[in-house]
Amino acid sequence: MSTTATTSTAPAPAPAHSRRVGPLALAVRQGRLEVRQFLRSRESVVFTMLFPVVMILIFASIFRGEIGGGVSFTQYFVTGMIATGLMTVGFQSLAIQIPIERDRGVLKRLRGTPMPRWVYFAGKVIMVALIALVETVLLLAVATLLFDLDLPDGVDRWLTLLWVSALGTTACTLCGIAFSSLARSGRGASAVATPVALVLQFISGVFFVFTDLPSWMQQVAAIFPLKWMCQGLRSVFLPDSFGAVEPAGSFELGRVALVLAAWCVVGLVLCLTTFRWTTRRDG
């Protein structure tokens, strides 16, 4: 008695190593790697993610009175702390991290792999967005629980918080990537980026009431994104009446959006034209 063997015509599954990974999966995988690397560095966690929280603890503990109109100092300065936190994780951290990776040859090796170059930047963007979100939530939670911060009371204010944070973080991220090309080495990156960040914080109304600053300083600050981020966030956390004491007599949300969007474009152009994958000594 004979039997006839039958063979299936269905194609065999492709080996796991030959399966193509989609663009989104590539970006998420790279973002996960960037977040893990960030969290492994105690310095990054303390000086990038926890810095605004530490500053609001200090400011709120020292200045317990009112700034005027029934608004506490905490209510005013939390806007600057959120903005500086977004700038720190988007601009300062990338302006320091990328030169270190370039110095170590990480970027050179990545350029020699089949991985599309955009995946590297997508990973940085995902890392910045996630850390910025956690940092902002943590800051608001601490200020609310310990210092009676009044959270935004309307959907429109929460939406303003969202788009100001999104535009500001995008502008700072792109500028941080572009700025990373200025450092001659990874060792000198912090010395190049940190003073710039500190000066912007002092002139943009992070540590002082913005209208108390000299007029020339206000005009210089108006060139850069941080001032507009602080101003947009003040419209979220302060009463509408405080718009009248702004330099232009209002919070100017339309101009805030325009300036931040312009800086996104400027940052993107600078990234495309100045970013280097190798050090100067490598050519």
TrEMBL record:
Q: Origin, by domain of life?
A: Bacteria
InterPro entries recorded: ABC2_TM (IPR013525), ABC2_TM_bact-type (IPR047817), ABC_2_transport (IPR000412), Nod_factor_ABC_transporter (IPR051784)
Keywords in alphabetical order: Antibiotic resistance, Cell membrane, Membrane, Transmembrane, Transmembrane helix, Transport
Instruction: Tell me where in this chain the ABC transmembrane type-2 domain is found.
Output: 43-278
Its localization reads:
Cell membrane; Membrane
Q: Which Pfam families match?
A: ABC2_membrane
Q: Which family does it belong to?
A: Belongs to the ABC-2 integral membrane protein family.
Protein name, please? Transport permease protein
Q: What species does this protein belong to?
A: Plantactinospora sonchi
